[in-house]
Design brief:
The chain has 85 residues and is mostly beta strands. The protein has strands spanning 2-4, 7-9, 21-29, 34-38, 51-53, 57-59, 63-71, 74-83. The chain has one domain (2-83): Immunoglobulin-like, CATH 2.60.40. The protein contains no helices and eight strands. The strands form three sheets. The protein has a four-stranded antiparallel sheet, with no helix packed on it. Strands 1-6 form a two-stranded antiparallel sheet. The protein has a two-stranded antiparallel ribbon with strand order 2-5. The radius of gyration is 13 Å and the shape is elongated.
Length: 85
């Protein structure tokens, strides 16, 4: 078991920021199969620096953890970290 603490912030390139955004966390095994998704709350306000805090997660296997920024229902950017020994 691996414990991962994941807080995520994305910085907007536009002065108006992102509107109707959410951040989802996904966890995948070493075969890149997603086994857990934590869907974030959709925020209607516009923010230049959207952020979501997540409590530490105990993962059952190695693989990767990703944060995905959605604006509306469109994925705009992802950031992933490999979870290894």
């Amino acid at each position: 078991m691996r414990t991962v603490e994941y807080n995520c912030v994305f910085v907007g390139a536009l002065s108006s920021g992102f509107c109707n955004w959410r951040i989802d966390f996904t966890y995948a095994d070493t075969e890149n199969r997603t086994y857990r998704t934590s869907r974030g709350t959709t925020h209607t306000e516009c923010k230049i620096d959207p952020m979501r805090n997540n409590s530490p997660q105990t993962l059952p296997r190695y693989g990767k953890a990703c944060a995905r920024l959605y604006v509306g229902e469109t994925r705009r950017v992802s950031q992933c970290h490999n979870i290894t020994k």
